[in-house]
């Protein structure tokens, strides 16, 4: 459907027949990240105007599911994994391993295309940072965040997420 496709075209602008045809012709890859780490990343990038992580989280919770910014909106709402049959789901923190597998499956040369990832360092850093940021939150905020991201936590294996408890 190149005649209707521009860089700004969204899937919802097509009818169901066109959507099914397009999705059937693409290799669909979904990159997922622990929702709490997404919140931390958004806060650290200064995308919220809050002075503290706790107040930023409160702003997110106050915005609710219907007014959530794409930076922290639940993945299940953004990517519809129950409706779209993704060919690959790639977890942040395992990028080198999973992208290598994906490139091999598509027949592309792995070594020349993969940048150097330091997955172990990234996981350790986010684990430490998550612990620090999580300790800033009230029990009420922790419960509300777990509820806010409940579908993501059910849909994806974020076993080490602070929100899983």
UniProtKB/TrEMBL annotation:
It comes from the Eukaryota. The keyword Cytoplasm does not apply. Pfam families: Sulfotransfer_2. Keywords: Carbohydrate metabolism, Glycoprotein, Golgi apparatus, Membrane, Signal-anchor, Transferase, Transmembrane, Transmembrane helix. It is found in: Golgi apparatus membrane. One of its GO terms (biological process) is dermatan sulfate proteoglycan metabolic process. Coiled coil: none annotated. It is a single-pass type II membrane protein. InterPro entries: Carb_sulfotrans_8-10, Sulfotransferase. GO terms for molecular function: sulfotransferase activity. It is an enzyme of class 2 (transferase). GO terms for cellular component: Golgi membrane. Its EC number is 2.8.2.-. PANTHER family: CARBOHYDRATE SULFOTRANSFERASE (PTHR12137). Belongs to the sulfotransferase 2 family. This is Carbohydrate sulfotransferase. It comes from Mesembrinibis cayennensis.
